[in-house]
Amino acid sequence: MPGRSARRAAPAALALALALSSTGCGHLSAPHWPWHHSPPPPPAPVHELEIGGAPADSFPQYWKRNTLLVDLSAATGTGSITLKPAAGGSWPVRVAFRVTPGSIGVLDVRAAEHESLPIVPGGGKPVDLELSPATYTATTPEMSVSWGPTPAP
Question: How far apart are the first and last CA of the chain?
Fold first, then answer.
């Protein structure tokens, strides 16, 4: 009579398998791996510098470690802005600009000194260009930033 007990166990095993697949073990279809982490949230915009010559939200500012990053990745063609410390503030120790290669060819910065930053076309991903420390000083009243196409040789 071993065949009779096997026939009785088959429906019970089938019922158990269906119950596990539809309820208790449903999380197995979408595993959560312990080494998988969600990406970090984007940095919060800050207001350290006053931007003249463009709407305030056109070029957001972010802290990237101890460098103030002014996001010019939306800049195309030719244009210019002026930067100065917000009321009651001072110049950050480091300033960088995020630009998109191919959108503009050169970034020209005038403050205590003049610095011209050529942008190599290609890649398409935004790059960060940090100013040299001598470009501006703590007493620099404002910084003029302009961009345009690559000058002809």
Answer: 97
List beta partners, residue 97.
Answer: 70, 129
If you search the block for the tokens 């060819």, which residue do you land on? 105
Q: How far is the C-alpha of 112 from the C-alpha of 131, rounded, in Å?
A: 12
Give me the helices (H) in 51-149, please: none
- What structural domains does the chain harbor? 49-148 (2.60.40)
Tokens read off for 77: 């063609």
CA dist., res. 130 & res. 122, Å (int): 19
- Tell me phi and psi for residue 2, to 5 degrees: -65, -25
Strand partners, 108: 116, 146
Nearest to 126 by CA among 149, 95, 99: 99
Walk along the chain (153 residues) and give the pLDDT tens digit of each residue.
Answer: 556 665 666 666 666 565 555 554 444 455 667 777 888 888 899 999 999 998 878 999 999 999 999 999 999 899 999 999 999 999 999 999 999 998 999 999 999 999 999 998 877 789 999 999 999 999 999 999 999 998 777
pTM as predicted: 0.73
Residue 5 host element (H or E): helix 2-19
